[in-house]
Specification:
Elements: H1 5-12, E1 41-43, H2 57-63, H3 77-88, E2 90-93, E3 99-101, E4 112-118, E5 127-132, E6 137-143, H4 144-152, H5 158-163, E7 166-173, H6 174-181, H7 185-206, E8 209-214, H8 219-226, E9 233-243
Antiparallel strand pairs: 1-6, 2-3, 4-5, 4-7, 5-6, 7-9, 8-9
Helix pairs in contact: 3-7, 4-8, 6-7
Bound molecules: flavin mononucleotide.
Flavin mononucleotide binds near residues 66 and 68.
Length: about 240
């Protein structure tokens, strides 16, 4: 009989099999990811209160849907700031350096990085960026000219990426979660990606922006396009965003 590696994954990640973690042994926590020495931070505007404060919560839940076609209009920097705040915004720092954010995370580990492929945001040069959640700032990584070809090769629905104003790509830094949870970290990372993307859908709806979640990416190509190794850090989920 063929080995069912997914069943093996489930068993290997049973809670009882993942108790002997680095945290439980009081080993030092993983280092924070360093920025390049010459990284220039682009401060984002304060995320404002959502414009439509009267929005009915049940209506918001019911009307959420995936939008795959976008206009060529530009998003504002404030809109982008708001989406980043809703998906990864840091509400509070905790002793030891961890954070409480607008999305839940097992053990408040918050192991995600948000990469942004930006094509139409007012005031930002098109290109690949990384969001720094604690600073609520962006770091420019590469021009769109350099990044486009390799990024598009990473997605099955490359046309949707091409048409988006911004594509969000969430990667996981495994050790940030595995330190506390061992191999069970893989489960938590995939679960948490749903929380993040749902907040993107809901916040974008209130800003009259369209979103489509993207699980159809070619892992190796996308990881390579982002300059990550696919093991210590790997792409988990993505979503296109644009003006409707
Ligand atoms: C985990 C996940 C992965 C998805 N991947 C893709 C994708 O790669 N391409 C795409 O066009 N839509 C993708 N979607 C969007 C779904 O197709 C969409 O949610 C579904 O058709 C239901 O439509 P609704 O979101 O409008 O309710 C994905 C959704 C989820 C939750």
């Amino acid at each position: 009989m063929q080995e069912n590696i997914c069943q093996k994954f489930l068993q290997a990640t049973y809670l009882k099999n993942c108790q002997n973690t680095k945290k439980s042994q009081a080993l030092p926590p993983p280092a924070k990811r360093p920025l390049f020495a010459d990284a220039v931070l682009i401060a984002l505007p304060e995320p404002e209160l959502l414009p439509d404060k009267q929005i009915n919560f049940l209506e918001l839940i019911e009307l959420r849907s995936s939008v795959r076609q976008y206009s060529t209009a530009y998003m504002t920097l404030k809109e982008l700031s708001c989406l980043l705040w809703c998906t990864q915004g840091v509400k509070m720092g905790l002793p030891g350096g961890s954070t409480i954010r607008n999305v839940p995370s097992a053990g408040a580990c918050h192991a995600f990085e948000t990469y942004l492929y930006i094509q139409r945001v007012e005031g930002l040069r098109p290109g690949l960026y990384r969001f720094l959640a604690p600073e609520h700032a962006l770091v420019f990584l590469d021009t769109a000219d350099n990044a486009e070809k390799s990024l598009l090769a990473g997605f099955k629905a490359a046309n949707m990426i091409k048409d988006s104003a911004v594509t969000f790509i969430w990667t996981a830094r495994l050790e940030a979660m595995a330190y506390a949870f061992g191999n069970r970290a893989y489960r938590y990372l995939f679960i948490e990606a749903g929380h993040v993307c749902q907040n993107l859908y809901l916040s974008a709806y209130t800003l009259h922006l369209g979103v489509c979640a993207i699980g159809g990416f070619y892992d190796e190509e996308l990881n390579a396009a982002l300059g990550i190794d696919g093991q210590d850090e790997f792409a988990v989920y993505a979503a296109t965003v644009g003006k409707i």
